[in-house]
Amino acid sequence: MAENLADKIPAGTNFLHRIIEEDIQSGLNGGRVVTRVPPEPNGYLHIGHAMNVIINAGSAIKYGGKWNLRFDDTNPIKEEAEFVESIMDDIRWLGYDWGDRLFFASDYFDRLYGFAEKLIEMGKAYVCDLDKDEIREYRGTLTEPGKNSPYRDRTPAENLDLFRRMRAGELPDGSRVLRAKIDMSSPNLNMRDPVIYRIAHVSHHRTKDKWCIYPMYDFQHPLSDAMEGVTHSMCSLEYEDHRPLYNWVVEQLADEFEYLPKQREYARLELTNTVTSKRKLRALVEEGRVRGWDDPRMPTLRAMRRRGYTSQAVHTFIDAVGVAKRYSTVDIAFLEHCVREDLKMTRPRMMAVIDPLKVIITNYPEDKVEWLPVDNNQENPEMGERKVPFCREIWIEQEDFLEDPPKKFFRLYPGKEVRLKGAYCVTCTDVVKDGDGNISEVHCTYDPETLSGKPMDRKVKGTLHWVSAEHAVPAEMRLYEYLFVEGEDGDLVFNEDSLVITQGYAEPALAEATPEDTFQFLRQGYFCMDKDSAPDKLVFNRTVPLKSSYKPPAQ
């Protein structure tokens, strides 16, 4: 179980926790705390959903309560079993275990249907023949009241007969709906006789073809909460206008439940350069603009894992952002900062060359190989050291050599001496070019007296990372930028340059890595081995660059 970061929040700084504490003190619901995480299985969890998981599950744990994982699977048109499995896996990755408290709204279809019939018998629901466009027209506007449906005054007996025919599959999709009978003049449009059941002759991923009518979210969700004994139903702020309907539904059927849940809202997580709309994310996948829901550029948790983000970094980020009552946008660079801070002391610092340039050390014996000790993490001596091979031919970064350098260029150029990390000092003596005038090789000589920083009084500006050409493993480096950037009108647009792929080399020890293993590549950033890796070609995703201009706010 991951550390519950809610415990680190000082008392009184989280308004949801203040509400829970007041409810416990007043004895509301017997002082019980039961929350729920209610994903709809119509896509993959994203960073915003992670906040909901952490708030609901974390709060229950903090106050010694229980939390339910419930799939609100009442829309078979968009839902798939694949998403159920991925969501469970992502919640485990976040560090939460629901134990035996796994539920599905589809398990309640019989009871929900019974509740609907009860509302009909009470005169609180009716079958309506208007189509969706007519319902929208009759609903009115924010400034004009709605009009009653011409079918609103059907008797309970007529409504029961029609509703049962809907269930029996006698009526086609869109021909009828069941609506709650509330108030067509309510200032809240959600209370103007909302639809609570619709016909959909679609096979469900769990109930198959048993049902052809399905409850709407605003009907199912509060009743599922009530059936499960949920006390605190915490959701994002867009559901605030739905709270009166939530309360109306459970109040009409209050005699069916021992405790009634309360809905509370918080501002959802908004990040710069990020879109979390499932509809928009699905479009990116279906249009082939990304390589699936787990494309490392996506804001899904599955994608973040593939990119090398850690669950602890996500926890730290969401904890630091806090729980707010009003929307604000958080700089995505802060999330990257949290990732970088989590990785820097715990990941080995390896050598890999992203854009390789061949260096030949002309005075080094051709058949000689040295295995040189290198610290795994200079800031964490407890991580020990490893041996890296050194020989006559090595790879360095193209950007680390200039034939005609500007002032204050402290890397390699003709006549310049630099240190090779963990190895020797080398001096450039010659440059070899191909027929097009491009540099193909750099020739250097080495000083055998300078191994591993010796002599101590030798002052050499510039230290380069490198890999042995003989031992290096071919590696594909996938460098990511933000998936969305700000367009001319200020709106976010797809970034066509969000992925750059380079072909480089990695030190041989990296061949032992497995997917999701994360490393710092010296002077390059943090990288994670991708699942596309093969024994003869490694693939690494850049998690975050090594440095950022982002400065976290002062505490």
Question: Which class do the helix and strand fractions yield?
Answer: alpha/beta
Question: What is the number of E strands?
Answer: 29
Question: What is the share of helical residues?
Answer: 10-25%
Number of helices: 12
Average residue-wise pLDDT: 94
> pLDDT under 50 segments (min length 5)?
1-12
Main sheet, how many strands, which sense, barrel?
A: 7 strands, mixed
Task: Report the CATH architecture of the largest domain.
Answer: 3-Layer(aba) Sandwich
Describe the model.
This protein is α/β, with parallel strands linked by helices and 555 residues long. It has 3 domains: 5-270, HUPs (Rossmann fold); 271-340, Glutamyl-tRNA Synthetase, domain 2; 349-468, Beta Barrel (Ribosomal Protein L25, Chain P). It is built from 12 helices and 29 strands. A 7-stranded mixed beta sheet has the order 12-27-28-29-23-26-13. Strand 8, helix 8 and strand 9 form a beta-alpha-beta unit. Helix 7 (217-227) packs across helix 8 (243-252). The longest helix has 16 residues, at 47-62. The two termini are 28 Å apart.
Short account of what is shown:
The chain has 555 residues and is an alpha/beta fold. It contains 12 helices and 29 strands. α11 (311-321) crosses α12 (332-343).
Write out key terms for the chains shown.
Glutamyl-tRNA Synthetase, domain 2, 7-stranded mixed beta sheet, Rossmann fold, about 550 residues, alpha/beta
List the helices and strands and how they pair.
Layout: H1 15-26, E1 34-37, H2 47-62, E2 66-71, H3 81-94, E3 102-104, H4 109-121, E4 125-128, H5 132-139, H6 156-168, E5 177-180, E6 195-199, E7 213-215, H7 217-227, E8 232-236, H8 243-252, E9 262-266, E10 270-271, H9 278-286, H10 301-307, H11 311-321, E11 329-330, H12 332-343, E12 349-350, E13 352-353, E14 356-361, E15 370-375, E16 385-390, E17 393-397, E18 417-420, E19 425-433, E20 439-447, E21 463-464, E22 467-468, E23 473-480, E24 484-486, E25 492-494, E26 499-506, E27 518-521, E28 525-529, E29 538-545
Helix pairs in contact: 7-8, 11-12
